[in-house]
Design a protein that fits this description.
Blueprint: H1 4-7, E1 20-24, E2 31-34, H2 35-44, E3 48-53, E4 60-64, H3 66-83, E5 89-94, H4 100-115, E6 119-125, H5 134-147, E7 152-161, E8 164-171, H6 192-199
């Protein structure tokens, strides 16, 4: 059922145990009422008495339509979730002796990922005895980070975990692709002949 995960968060009506409550709400003067009177007021209005600040002394309650209140709460949570930027992590794998052609191909991919706002997790995988080249792997990852300096910043320096040496690069703010704007026309320099005529 909708809103079930929000339901246990508030005491409503007979679930409220305090003898007195401070009542707030539309068209209600905020003041302290005995609980029985506050419940009666809510019933007469065809609404619920909802405890919104249980730790206040006395607790603060609102006379509202509880199901509508839950709906608004859920809507607000959805909006907040939508505002959170989801960051994807793209992996790029190297061998300890990656050639230049392969390196440049992967570099272009990484530039694209960072421009799209994704993080890049680049790692060198050491097979068997290639672990002997771990310094070479570190140099490769640092060169990779350096070549991406314009697009991203290093979030974590190369770390060796088992057979993998990993580096994390996060996109720089303002590097995300923007819609291409037409270039503003450059002001045309005056012809020399015109300048000579003006000086006469």
């Amino acid at each position: 059922m909708k809103n079930d995960n929000l339901k246990g968060q508030h005491r409503i009506n007979e679930q409220i145990h305090s003898k007195e409550v401070r009542v707030v709400g539309d068209d209600i003067e905020p003041r302290v009422y005995p609980l029985a009177q506050a419940l009666r007021m809510a019933e007469e209005a065809g609404m619920d008495l909802v405890e919104i600040s249980p730790n206040a002394v006395p607790p603060v309650c609102k006379i509202i339509d509880y199901s509508k209140f839950l709906y608004q709460l859920k809507k607000k949570q959805k909006e907040m979730k939508a505002k959170q930027v989801k960051v994807n992590v793209k992996e790029i794998r190297f061998g300890p002796q990656t050639d230049d052609h392969d390196y440049n191909f992967k570099l272009r991919h990484a530039q694209g990922f960072l421009q799209d706002g994704d993080k890049v997790k680049a790692y060198v995988f050491f097979k068997g005895r290639s672990i002997l080249f771990k310094e070479q792997g570190e140099v490769l990852l640092l060169r990779f980070a350096n070549d991406l300096e314009e697009y991203g910043k290093v979030e974590q320096m190369p770390v060796l975990e088992g057979k993998r040496m990993t580096i994390f690069i996060a996109p720089k703010k303002g590097t995300a692709k923007k819609a291409d704007k037409p270039a503003a026309p450059k002001p045309q320099p005056k012809a020399e002949a015109t300048q000579q005529e003006e000086s006469k």
